[in-house]
Amino acid sequence: MREYTIGQISRLLNVKPHILRYWEKELPFLSPKKNLGGRRVYSEIDLQLLYRIRYLIHEKGYTLSGAGKRVWEDLNSSDPNLLGKVRYLRGELIRLLDIIDEGRKKEAMTDTIKLFREKGQEHLFRYWERRDERQRERLIRDLNRLDLEMLGILQKRLKEEKKKKPKLDPIDFVSIDESRRDIDALRAGKDFIRAGKTAFLTVAGGQGSRLGFEGPKGMFPISPIRGASLFQIFSEKVMAARKIYGVPMPWLIMTSILNYEDTVNYFEENAFFGLEENDIYFFKQDVLPSLYPDGRLVLAPDGGLFKNPNGHGGVIEALKRSGMLDMLNERGIEELFYFQVDNPLVQVPDPLFLGWHLKYGSEMSTKVIEKAYPEEKLGSIGLIDGKPGVIEYSDLDLDLKLARNEDGRLLYSHGSIAVHILNVDFLRKQEGKLPYHLAFKSVKTLKPTDTGADIIEEEAVKFEMFLFDAIPFARNPLFFETSRREEFSPLKNREGVDSIETCIRGQIEKYASWLERVGTRVRRDEKGMSVHKIEISPLFALDLEVLKTKRNEIPKEINNETLII
Ligand code: UTP
What we know:
- This protein is an alpha/beta fold.
- It has 19 helices and 20 strands.
- The model has no long low-confidence stretch (mean pLDDT 93).
């Protein structure tokens, strides 16, 4: 009978020797005899058993132990003579199938390559034969999964002339003074939350490239004293809300395919920060292929296609596809408090905002703040071709940015901070896709060469949908003013504007002002900034209203770094 070495077996099965050794360790009945030199010697029967195991794992999706169990049951269920023949025949059959399969795979690969060559994507296959096998397989897999219709849409979008500028007009919003006067709205908002009809929605699928942090941005430590992460801060807000309103409030977190695992692991490692695991729902947004400005696909450093998450506007589609909207319906949730992962100051839940949203019969409401200066990089609110919406910073010409009313106020004085209330039925009704915005970015790509491959930086176009583009489709969209100090200090960059430093400072100043409003003396420097670091955990006080009820537990004067938890 023929005998084989481990190297021969490895080549026949196309399974690496260390994997074979691992299989043998886990499944003792797979023990080939050893020769005098201690090397494994495989018989025909050993080979057949291994073929069977490989077939069950690779083709049928069994786990190793499941495949072992199945083969063991087969071995024990037949008469020994018959078994020998059956095993032999089965082995032969599997081998033949494998050969056919291999042939089919090659054919399919050739078809894929042919198709994309014809589509002007020849560059993807340069130095094909010299490329690592895994890289080749990854690319073919990605190309087979690529939605060709979508590729066509993105390529067309690249060629589109900059659209004719829309007609812009200023729009009204509910001011802070006006909203605060409405006690009924506040009460209605609170009742609605107490009835268990609201949930939180965080978009956390971005790549945080400007911050340059390894891992999901939500894991970034940002609170002034404890260094609590963004996710921890939000978890505490959710927990505090649950206590105040006495109802479970689900928290939906959108990640991308790229940061899903890291995000979920982080929550698991931190025992979900004390929240009910069943009240946190992670779901994934889609990705889109990035393209060179001329429409060609881009190779990612791992040899597959370069893709990017499809923007925070991808949340609508992702909520539907993942079954989240059905879950929300089943749980009786009607309105969502939406916020981005990078703004620790966000006030959620906000019953006053909700009360106004309900009173207006709005399907999508947006918080706005007054711009710090006319050219601030905030999307301005306005009427776009007669419909309420957000005008991208770059779409508002300088003369409009600077334009003023007769009373001297900026015409486009307010911008969105990407804090919304979204009506669940409204989300369900959205059929079409939102428009794609183009971002030209420098990205790391794979450049195959005749000696291997280099990783280089090249300009590519990322396509993203923006959630604010849904505003014009909503019934009675509401713009609701809030204060920057209270509610907006995003973490975008390492340094400079909207950076780690400004985000920490933003938190300190918010807490300092809260303390002053309940009668505590805060020492301030010549620029009016709090001299000492201050941090208040949302678990101690979710908002100013709660803080007021805890006056007696708060120091009367801040003389050093103060953490209130
Ligand atoms: P940004 O537009 O600031 O992008 O996202 P970013 O990815 O966080 O950072 P940069 O531009 O790479 O530096 C605003 C919010 O939208 C989410 C982000 O996680 C953040 O909460 N987002 C962005 C998504 O959920 N998905 C996306 O595809 C893009």
